[in-house]
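Project outcomes to date are best conveyed with an example. Our students and postdoctoral researchers have been running inverse folding experiments weekly, and each run begins with a structure described purely in tokens. The record below, which covers 227 residues, was selected by the lab manager from last quarter's runs and is presented without edits.
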């Protein structure tokens, strides 16, 4: 694992988004009066949220790609990452959905199929431990809105403490509410300069913390049980 390359990839993802936001903010000087600038900041709120959500997915996808490239055996990885790797298999245990891992021939009695699948799964846990981490991209899922509960779910799936961003949840709520009010037409009010700048600083702080978090998790190999 080349940590320097991964850090550069994360920081580049943050850099281009920061530069794009700065580019559009600079357009505010072209407007004739404060009312027009307030209206333009409404659009900037939507863009700020879009970059926050996009950065979240991109950064954690980089993290997942780095883990998958390491050929880590499931028996050595934290349980959340094993569950993420076998996402479809675990989902199939509660349904009749096919799973390539489950290949024992089930009994003829349809009523026993579900029980048979569960028994095979438990009997073959050592086989699961011998497989390599291969986390599917869909595990990193901002869903329809990257709300605090969605953030907690994503963190937990990737073996990171789910409450690690708890101190940022107020900012996420504020950003999401403002974005929804603008995008859904719930308010036509413009956005004051101080209000937008404060929100932007807080959101950029979260994104910078994501870079630090993922780099530290890779550097200290906290994805392994032994860590």
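After processing, the design step wrote out the following sequence:
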């Amino acid at each position: 694992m080349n940590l320097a390359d991964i850090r550069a990839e994360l920081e580049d993802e943050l850099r281009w988004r920061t530069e794009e936001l700065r580019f559009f903010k600079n357009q505010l000087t072209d407007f004739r009066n404060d009312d027009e600038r307030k209206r333009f900041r409404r659009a900037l709120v939507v863009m700020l949220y879009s970059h926050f959500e996009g950065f979240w997915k991109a950064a954690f996808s980089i993290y997942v790609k780095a883990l998958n490239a390491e050929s880590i055996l499931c028996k050595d990885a934290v349980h959340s990452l094993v569950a993420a790797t076998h996402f479809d298999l675990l989902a199939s245990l509660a349904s009749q959905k096919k799973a390539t891992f489950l290949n024992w021939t089930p009994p003829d009695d349809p009523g026993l199929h579900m029980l048979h699948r569960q028994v095979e799964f438990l009997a073959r846990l050592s086989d699961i431990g011998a497989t390599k981490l291969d986390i599917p991209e869909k595990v990193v899922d901002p869903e329809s809105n990257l709300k605090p509960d969605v953030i907690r779910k994503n963190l937990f799936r990737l073996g990171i403490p789910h409450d690690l961003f708890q101190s940022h949840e107020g900012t996420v709520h504020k950003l999401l509410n403002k974005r929804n009010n603008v995008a859904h037409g719930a308010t036509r009010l413009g956005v004051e300069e101080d209000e937008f700048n404060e929100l932007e600083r807080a959101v950029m702080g979260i994104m910078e913390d994501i870079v630090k978090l993922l780099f530290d998790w890779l550097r200290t190999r906290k994805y392994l049980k032994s860590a």
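The chain has a mean pLDDT of 92. Residues 3-74+140-219 form one domain. The training component of this project remains on track.
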